[in-house]
Design a protein that fits this description.
This is L-ascorbate metabolism protein UlaG, beta-lactamase superfamily. By secondary structure, this protein is an alpha/beta fold. The protein has a single domain, classed as Metallo-beta-lactamase, Chain A, CATH 3.60.15. The protein is built from six helices and 14 strands. The longest helix is centred in the last third of the chain and has 10 residues.
Length: about 230
């Protein structure tokens, strides 16, 4: 499965020929200045919650690419009022079989409001179960014992976890989360974009190695195979 990093918590995966984009925040991220947002294509855009650092480019990208926006009921309703036509509402605990595989929504412990102050509903994580592999995107979240339920849903090939601390899990909690979800390969997101989430990436990788885990931190704009 191809994983493309666009900075912060924005990334894309290609599954069964479909391009799936997550939490689009590019044009307001100085670290992603070299990313050509106009070259990005998407068949689906999944949104974990409403904060601006996850939705700043949502409307423009959805309109240009004609992607289907998938998120909780409140965010999908809001996007519809902004002129987005292709929408799929979901909510915590639910699952749906898409053309590329099945997605189940799970708990994320965080807050959620949209850039204009609109209530953003409950934040969520997503478990993707596909013929090309299974992965978990946690969204912005604290460490929560609900993660212990994930291995009962499916076995994971990799997981995408926030590691920047302050607003989300930090390194220690992300390691604990990896153990709860029984996943050894972790891709870190939500770090180094702002002063509040600065981390020592070399130290973070060593902490994961010491725990018997692998932490991948792909460069912005790069594509890796996972």
């Amino acid at each position: 499965m191809k994983y493309t990093c666009y900075g912060h918590s924005c990334f894309a995966v290609e599954i069964m020929g479909k391009k799936i984009l997550f939490d689009p925040f590019i044009t307001h991220n100085e670290l992603a200045a070299k990313v050509d947002i106009h070259a990005i294509t998407a068949d689906y855009i999944f949104v974990s919650h409403g904060h601006e650092d996850h939705t700043a480019d949502l409307l423009d990208l959805a309109k240009r690419t004609n992607a289907t926006v998938v998120s909780n009921f409140e965010i999908v309703t809001w996007a519809g009022k902004q002129g987005i036509e292709k929408l799929h509402p979901m909510n915590t605990g639910g699952k749906w079989k898409f053309e590329f595989g099945t997605v189940k929504c799970v708990v994320a412990q965080h807050s959620s409001s949209l850039p204009d102050g609109t209530y953003g509903g409950n934040p969520m994580g997503f478990i993707f179960m596909t013929e090309e592999g299974n992965f978990y995107y946690a969204g912005d979240t604290a460490l929560t014992v609900d993660m212990e339920l994930i291995p009962a849903v499916t076995s994971l090939d990799f997981a995408v976890l926030p590691i920047g601390d302050n607003f989300t899990m930090g390194i220690e909690d992300a390691i604990a989360a990896a153990e709860m979800i029984e996943c050894e390969k972790i891709i870190g997101v939500h770090y180094n974009t702002f002063g509040y989430v600065k981390i020592d990436t070399d130290e973070a990788k060593m902490q994961f190695i010491d725990a018997g885990l692998e932490l991948l931190l792909p460069e912005i704009g790069s594509t890796i195979e996972v």
